[in-house]
What we know:
The chain is built from 10 helices and no strands. The chain is mainly alpha-helical. The longest helix is centred in the middle third of the chain and has 41 residues, at about 155-195. It starts with a helix and ends with a helix.
Amino acid sequence: MEASLYSSNIANIVLNAILCFFAITLNGATIYALGKTPSLPKPLKALLLSLAFSHLGVGILSHPLFITRLALESRLQADLHTSFPTFYRVYSFVTGQFAYASFFGVLFLSLDRFLAIHLHLRYQELVTYQRVVTAVISAWVLSGLIPLIWRQIPIHIAYVLLAILVVSCFVVSGVLNSMIYATVRRHAHQIHSLQVQPTVQENAPNVTNASTLRRSTFMTIHIYGFISFYPGLAVLKAVYQYTFTLVLLNSSLNPLIYCWKLRGVRQTIMTTLINALSSQN
């Protein structure tokens, strides 16, 4: 292995070790905070919990497996696909499982916020907690099946199907988030006009609900923006490895978005982390 690639692998290992710590810590705190935030609608909470668990899985399994892969390749200077086929199969399945679960989680969040804005009163009737849970479970099952299916078909066909799947999901998510953004901005102007009217007290509940919906919707748009760094076909091995690290980085960044955009979750996470640090001192 060339010295430059070896040094790149070592730097990548250190970076992934740091991200592993943050992914586990932040997503563990996020899951706890979501459970302690009763103000969130149950369908939205189910989607956020699914996304947080997929990110926690990245911290617990995907980061360590990727670090192991880099370490083995650096030390043995061998292709794990042929030298350690069992490890490579486990690595591919686990990283694929959590990556696809995270990917579908963001797609479902975008769809949920789109329906919440455009269905209005019919949203609670159509988007029930049971239906969301069914969709989440189906997404996790599909996320586990995709890596297994890829291994049963020729590699060039698998790449084509993967490209179609990724591009289609990104197009759908992009269109949904663009429509969401336009609608939310229009609602923001309407809220501002209501706030300057003398009858603002009569409209206060609607203004509060619209503001909460706007914050959660912008949270979804920001999460989509971060996860959109999903890599294509990298030409250089080092570029691919760092691109994959960038994908895993989403698992550390997205909990920060929860804290930023959802006030109840932010306050619970801050209290939890402060109490944890205080108990250590």
